[in-house]
Amino acid sequence: MKTLYIVDTLNQIGQEVELKGWINTKRDHKKIVFLDLRDKTGIVQVVGGEEFKTLSPEAVVSIRGIVKKRPDKLINPKILTGKIEIEAREFKLLSKAEELPFDIAKENLDVTLPILLDYRPLTLRHPKIQAIFRVQETIVQTFRSTMKNLGFTEFQAPTMVATATEGGAEVFPIQYFEHKAYLAQSPQFYKQIMVSIFEKVFTVAHAYRAEPSVTTRHLTEYVGLDAEMGFIDSWTEIMDTAELLVKEIFKAVKEKHQDILSLYDIDTPQVSDHIPRVKLKEAQQIIFDRTKRDIRQEPDLDPEGEREMWRWAKENHQSELVFITHYPTKKRPMYTHPDPESPEETLSFDMIGRGQEWITGGQRIHDYKKLVENIKKWKCDPKAFETPYLQAFKFGMPPEGGFCLGLERITMNILGLSNIREATLFPRDMERIDIRLSKEEQNTPPVSQTNISVFERIQAMLKQNGVEFKHLMHKPVYTSLEASKVRGTTLQQGAKALLMYADGKPLMLVLPAHRKVDTKRFKTTQHIKDLRMATPQEVKKLIGVEIGAVPPFGNLFTLPLFVDKGLGVNKRIVFNAGDHAQSIEMEYQDYVRISAPTLDDFSV
Description:
The chain contains 16 helices and 29 strands. The strands form 7 sheets. An 8-stranded mixed sheet has the order 6-10-11-18-17-16-13-12, sandwiched between helices. It has a 5-stranded mixed barrel with strand order 1-2-3-5-4. The protein has a 5-stranded mixed sheet with strand order 25-23-24-26-29. By secondary structure, it is of the alpha+beta class. The protein starts with 15 loop residues before the first strand and ends with a strand. It folds into 3 domains: 90 residues, CATH 2.40.50.140; 295 residues, Bira Bifunctional Protein, Domain 2 (BirA Bifunctional Protein, domain 2); 155 residues, YbaK/aminoacyl-tRNA synthetase-associated domain (YbaK protein). The chain is globular and about 80 Å long. Helix 3 crosses helix 11 and helix 4 runs parallel beside helix 10. Strand 8 and strand 9 form a beta hairpin. Homodimer. This is Aspartate--tRNA ligase.
């Protein structure tokens, strides 16, 4: 078994070592050939002769040689082993590698997200991609150690259940022999049961949500860091514990992975001594006062509301985290404890981090009779929950509550990633389970090479989300003005979609067709250094359509989506649907709901 790693050679100058790993790059200088050898700890330069000429990138080798100190003028400050190199004496080829579909030795992988995921076993080898999951490992380790230090006991929760946990429809049914079962929406029931045994418990559990949405922050399978605690004196103790946990996570990531934070040019989130706690109604009023956008009658914050509260917390409390509390009973699961002082509200909370929900939690109903009554209010049959869930309450349950932290969400936001799939080893969504699920897309990496109609994809997404829309057929149009005339709509109603590259990564901007992008303002608000338009060739490669026919659904192509707030003055919007001769007209609010964009002011 391998016991010596590349990082260990730093202290072995002059000694003979045997290193095993992958060939990252090869540089042929006739009689001298340089290899960059890679293992899980880093990269080191190997100097050899013509025997290396037959080796190809990603071939697996064993190399025996002498650790040498590099001359000062040849030191490479970009890598940890930049002061040394290996003078090869002999090598063994352990495994050949076929020709790579793209160069993974670049500092940044120049591939689209679908390609990144299509070749996941290969792209995960890239140091910058690999680094994401080193951070994720530290998050899980810190969760475990923090909970252990607080006296919690870890348990393993089942992922096949007899009853839908949340009592809703967003479940994956499975055939369990001759019976119906479900993939667990969460380990919630088992957490509560285990409180009656170990008092304070936690688990790292996979959860499944059959949500028909394709956004940059949703998955159908995710990992939850779940905790539940009994004998609480106040429901605020749950928030105290969640706050302690995230601060411990930030501390650990900063101590162990400063190199990775530097690689991603980001720092851990700014957090105040006490994370601000704001009731939902108060948050909605704050949003209205700051933006004049009225969501005060809504049962939840929409994505833009979450981002606005992040901005508010950062400006007023020097915190990139904020708790939103007291969600209405109709918005929370049936086991959530109502507020005794305001029964229409619950003793529940979400923690918003960098503009997205990271944690959800609250106090649970622990009284058996009250829980049964609440289950009935939810139009559910208590008998379906009797075994084993309600048994724990029938035989005595202390006052208790808990929370769940989304592992992929916190990883994504700590590192400033633009899509949650980047923070997921093997992401599952409604379009992918390892392979792309559309038959037309299987085994065809570039979107531009598939036969699937973009319009059909849009139509399917709208129908799955229950959206009413109007399909317009017309002569081909190539400008926004032409389109508005042939559609019989105003130019202002047109949703103009532009593909751009921000610091080398593609994204989509959508704005009213009569306006232009204020690039300076957008770069400032989104902290972007370099911004440029995608070329016609890049547009075709990314989404398979021509410029002028780009639909405004970045989520459909797993692209970060930014929508100018000026588009929201329209009750209905209209846009080309992947074809110069086909358009779709729909409600603006439906568009925002299913595309989940970042709303910003970036048009003039």
